[in-house]
């Protein structure tokens, strides 16, 4: 039994795709970023299927009461933290330091690695897990945005399936169902539009951090919630889709869909469109990434079409939300431009959350950095690390130039 290809390049089935029930032993899972939003929901899914999955490694940035509680509940063999632990009251051997995340990802008993760590720290360990042929359930955006161009060929060479966890890409994956690239006319990613969808340009200039963090449909971490409000998140997802599904940028469209019920669509060459619908609940795409190709009962609340009644779609306003266009430009430029985009955005969002930058200046900072960026040489992890460091410095300077005394 071969796993239907997710990308035209074709990622094939590994033992992890065999049903645990068929095998008689649970599938070992490493959860990187276990204390974050996706990580905790992934552990909820795993806890609901103890006969199918067992947690062999947990990784988080630091020791916390939550991480200790997770270790006591799931009894992993190792727990990895990037910061030096000041006491450990959990279960399992504690590992720390620069290589701890990779130790968790490469644990010999881990067949599936859930990469839910935020930011660039997940990139190296994810490459090593792919190199080792593990199945990756990928929730981390930066890895595929910055390094998709070199990650996907490696995954193909190592027979290491990369399964999307992001709701939009899970939707596309489910709609594609292994269809060949020649059958696909375009992908349509939906965006909720965030809390500021209907604000005018002058109102956008005055929005506060609290308003930005009040997302209308999804409960997520701070960085991604700001990115959702600016549509940068959707721009990053366009780049993700380009690499995950090997579809050109001009065939990836974004539509604003405020209800967040249709998670994305695929239009085929005959004009037929398939959509994936459900209530916004990350446990669904997480579960599908774990149990694929099987579909299993889920505790998630069910969608009632009659109660939903109406679904709305509109074109995104690129004038008010320029981040979407910036991301597309960076994606099309390729090389380290997506890295510069992602790193600059991270610095700008941090400055916004700290009250040092206006919301509307987030894309302005990113545009400054992209305008100054230059690509040298073929893409590699080293080049990505250099571009990341350069873009952060450049973005901090751009923030300085733009931060008004009144902020
Ligand atoms: Mg998403």
UniProtKB/TrEMBL annotation:
Residues 162-245 form the 1-deoxy-D-xylulose 5-phosphate reductoisomerase C-terminal domain. The keyword Cytoplasm does not apply. It comes from the Bacteria. The keyword Cytoplasm does not apply. Gene3D superfamilies: 1.10.1740.10, NAD(P)-binding Rossmann-like Domain. Residues 277-393 form the DXP reductoisomerase C-terminal domain. Its cofactor is Mg(2+); Mn(2+). GO terms for biological process: isopentenyl diphosphate biosynthetic process, methylerythritol 4-phosphate pathway involved in terpenoid biosynthetic process. Mn(2+) binds at residues 166, 168, 237. Residues 29-148 form the 1-deoxy-D-xylulose 5-phosphate reductoisomerase N-terminal domain. Pathway: Isoprenoid biosynthesis; isopentenyl diphosphate biosynthesis via DXP pathway; isopentenyl diphosphate from 1-deoxy-D-xylulose 5-phosphate: step 1/6. It catalyses: 2-C-methyl-D-erythritol 4-phosphate + NADP(+) = 1-deoxy-D-xylulose 5-phosphate + NADPH + H(+). Its EC number is 1.1.1.267. InterPro entries: DXP_reductoisomerase, DXP_reductoisomerase_C, DXP_reductoisomerase_N, DXPR_C, DXPR_C_sf, NAD(P)-bd_dom_sf. Belongs to the DXR family. PANTHER family: 1-DEOXY-D-XYLULOSE 5-PHOSPHATE REDUCTOISOMERASE (PTHR30525), 1-DEOXY-D-XYLULOSE 5-PHOSPHATE REDUCTOISOMERASE, CHLOROPLASTIC (PTHR30525:SF0). Catalyzes the NADPH-dependent rearrangement and reduction of 1-deoxy-D-xylulose-5-phosphate (DXP) to 2-C-methyl-D-erythritol 4-phosphate (MEP). This is 1-deoxy-D-xylulose 5-phosphate reductoisomerase. It comes from uncultured Thermomicrobiales bacterium. The gene is dxr.
């Amino acid at each position: 039994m071969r796993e239907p290809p997710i990308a035209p390049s074709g990622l094939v089935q590994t033992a992890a795709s065999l049903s645990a029930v068929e095998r008689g032993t649970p599938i070992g899972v490493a959860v990187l970023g276990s204390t974050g939003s996706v990580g905790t929901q992934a552990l909820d899914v795993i806890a609901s299927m103890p006969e199918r999955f067992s947690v062999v490694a947990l990784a988080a940035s630091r020791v916390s009461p939550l991480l200790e509680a997770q270790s006591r509940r799931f009894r992993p063999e190792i727990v990895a933290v990037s910061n030096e632990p000041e006491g450990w009251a959990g279960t399992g051997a504690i590992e720390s330091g620069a290589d701890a995340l990779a130790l968790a990802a490469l644990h010999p008993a881990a067949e599936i690695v859930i990469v839910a760590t935020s930011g660039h720290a997940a990139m190296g360990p994810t490459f090593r897990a792919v190199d080792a042929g593990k199945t990756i359930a990928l929730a981390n955006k930066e890895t595929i945005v910055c390094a998709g161009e070199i990650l996907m060929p490696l995954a193909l060479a190592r027979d290491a399936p990369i399964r999307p966890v992001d709701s939009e890409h899970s939707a596309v994956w489910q709609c594609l169902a292994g269809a060949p690239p020649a059958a696909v006319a375009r992908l349509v990613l939906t965006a909720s539009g965030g809390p500021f969808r209907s604000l005018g340009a002058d109102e956008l200039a005055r929005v506060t951090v609290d308003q930005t963090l009040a997302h209308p449909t999804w409960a997520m971490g701070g960085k991604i919630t700001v990115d959702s409000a600016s549509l940068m998140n959707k721009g990053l997802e366009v780049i993700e889709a380009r690499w995950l599904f090997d579809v050109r940028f001009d065939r990836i469209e974004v539509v604003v869909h405020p209800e967040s019920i249709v998670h994305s669509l695929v239009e085929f060459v005959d004009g037929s469109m398939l959509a994936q619908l459900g209530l916004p609940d990350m446990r669904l795409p997480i579960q599908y990434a774990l149990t694929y190709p099987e579909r299993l009962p889920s505790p998630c609340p069910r969608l009632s079409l009659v109660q939903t009644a109406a679904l709305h779609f509109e074109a995104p306003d690129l004038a008010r939300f320029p981040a979407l266009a910036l991301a597309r430009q960076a994606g099309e430029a390729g090389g380290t431009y997506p890295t510069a985009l992602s790193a600059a955005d991270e610095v700008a969002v941090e400055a916004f959350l700290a009250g040092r930058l206006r919301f509307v200046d987030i894309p302005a900072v990113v545009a400054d950095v992209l305008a100054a960026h230059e690509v040298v040489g073929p893409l590699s992890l080293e080049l990505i690390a250099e571009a990341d460091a350069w873009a952060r410095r450049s973005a901090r300077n751009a923030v300085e130039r733009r931060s008004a005394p009144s902020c």
